[in-house]
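User: Show me sequence and structure for the first protein, then do the same for the second.

Assistant: Starting with the first protein.
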Amino acid sequence: MEFLTSVSNMDNQSVVLIVFSVLLAFVLSSLIVFTYEKTAQEVATPHHFIQSLILMAIVTTTIMQSIGDSLARGFGIFGALAILRFRTNLISTRNISFIFASMAAGIACGVYSFITAVIGTLAFCIIAFFLRLTPFSRKSNMLGQLRFELPAASAEFEPAQAVIREFCNDFVLKRYRVLYTEEKGEYVEYQYEVRLAKDMQGAQLAGKLRRIDGLKDLRLNFSDTYVNLTD
């Protein structure tokens, strides 16, 4: 800490200070990238995104050094950046937090607030690892779409609900339709969104539902997604 404080007090135009701030931004962004790789839930690592985290910290540091204490430079640089159009869609909000962490490290290094940069980056990385070990971080987010049919006059709806409740932590009836055909007569089609208590119990759930009298056209599929399956 004493070393970082002594470096921060150097002349702002010192080449050593400029080089040190860029190198520190590189080290801190690399630490953020390491944290992202070890805590991300994606199987395939997005290498371009990882490279952008490091490059973004260095670019942000350079921009902040160029602005310095000049308000006119600040408006000029950010006005020039406003011309750019960023059209990359980031589905995961977690990835956005890592982008902001990289930019924050770059900004702190660019204004020569090295202690803030180091403490803030370390705190972010430690909390990211901590969250990875808590129930807030699921290794899978298996959401299922369950559909089946029952005769309209059947009394088996409650038993079907009991089976779903047995195997699922969460479930909700998304919609149902009352239909009629010459072959089946009047019947009801139910559609649920479910989350299993254990990810691999789908076969047991389907098997127990099939044993209910009158239940037909059972369809059950799962997908690891954060998007509503019925959209």
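Switching to the second protein now.
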Amino acid sequence: MPSKKQSRRKLDLTHLGSLNTNVTPEPVNVESEKVVESEKVVKPEKVVEPEKVVEEQPTHQATVETPVAPQAETAPVAPEEAPTEGRQFDKKPQRHEVKPLKTLASSMNSAGESFQPGDKIQLTAPWGKKAIAEITQIYQDESANAWVHYLPVEEIPPNWSWLGGCSRAERIVLAS
């Protein structure tokens, strides 16, 4: 059995370019429609041999360009006058204005304990054990929630990195 590549043949489609024939509809005669089909004579169509198309090689001759008539030239369109059919939006999207965070001097947790920057807090470290950290900043977001930013105080175990973190002030537990 031959391989697929051997059995494939290229199709010669060069003759399709010569098949552009203009067909004009014949006038319909009402009497001819009444003729029985068995009486109709079918004439074989003339078989058209495909012509070979020979592409001409480009020649390196200088061509003289004819000037375009002044009526055919179009005036350049200024960018502000260009049509905007392809544009989806008329305006650019506006960025939401970010308000600066409000820094607080102190805050309270859910147990009612008050704390301020510099106080020590106890929390769960990324490695899963309890750790001590120091509050560096207390701030309030747009929704009036108090947040605490802290940095670790204790030594970090090997193969771990911990640069600090933040938490909601109501979840903070002061270290004893």
